[in-house]
Amino acid sequence: MGKITIGSFEDFEKYIGQELGVSDYHQITQEQINQFAVATIDHQWIHTDPERAKKEGAFGDTIAHGYLTLSLVPYLWDQVIHVNNLKMMVNYGIESLRFAQAVLVNNEVRLNANLKNVVNLRGTVKAEVNVKLEIKDQKKPAFTGVLVFLYHFQS
Predict the structure, then answer these.
(1) Distances in Å between the alpha carbon of 45 and those of 30, 59, 143?
(2) Contact between residue 91 and residue 119 where contact means Cβ atoms under 8 Å apart
(3) Cα–Cα distance for residue pair 126/119, rounded to 1 Å
(4) N or C: which end of the chain has fewer CB atoms below 10 A?
(5) β-strands 86-99, 4-6: how paired?
(6) Which is nearest to 105 in space by CA: 34, 41, 38?
């Protein structure tokens, strides 16, 4: 399934209850984990100390921060959907989010998105999207949730 193109509320409406698409896989590297730790000032050893994580950690290696995996959504979302005629898009919120499984260093993840609902708010489209961050070769996803975006189309 290729990237879908949306240009209006009516285009979104056609996909309610349907899969919007799946992104490519993205590999989580130790360098990316370390850079996220610096950016967020979260240097917990389960993320940044490979030797200690292998010896003392519950996962046998370092793991990505949960919020690092969540922060990949814009990058991966862009691989699923292209919106034409767009004035502005805003990340409006998260209705629910559950981190279901740790993402180990060098795991590959991808976003799976399904359109839960859209509402036309006087010209602004509120899209509620069921998302799942899948981990390659794992049954359980890294997280599941409902993300809410606001799309402001050109007049």
Answers:
(1) 12, 12, 22
(2) no
(3) 5
(4) C
(5) unpaired
(6) 34
Q: Which residues pair with 58 in a beta bridge?
A: none
Closest to 133 measured CA to CA, from 81, 62, 47, 69: 69
Q: Where are the alpha helices (DSSP H) in the chain?
A: 9-13, 30-40, 45-48, 50-56, 66-71, 73-80
Neighbours of 58 (CB within 10 A): 8
Whole-prediction pTM: 0.94
Residue 74 structure tokens: 């814009």
What gap in Å lies between CA 72 and CA 67, rounded to an integer? 9
- Of 153, 84, 86, 94, nearest to 122 (Cα)? 153
pLDDT tens digits for the chain (155 residues)? Answer: 589 999 999 999 999 999 999 999 999 999 999 999 999 999 999 999 999 999 999 999 999 999 999 999 999 999 999 999 999 999 999 999 999 999 999 999 999 999 999 999 988 999 999 999 999 999 999 999 999 999 999 87
Count H helices and E strands in the chain, helices first. Answer: 6, 8
Residue 107 and residue 63: Cα distance in Å, rounded? 9
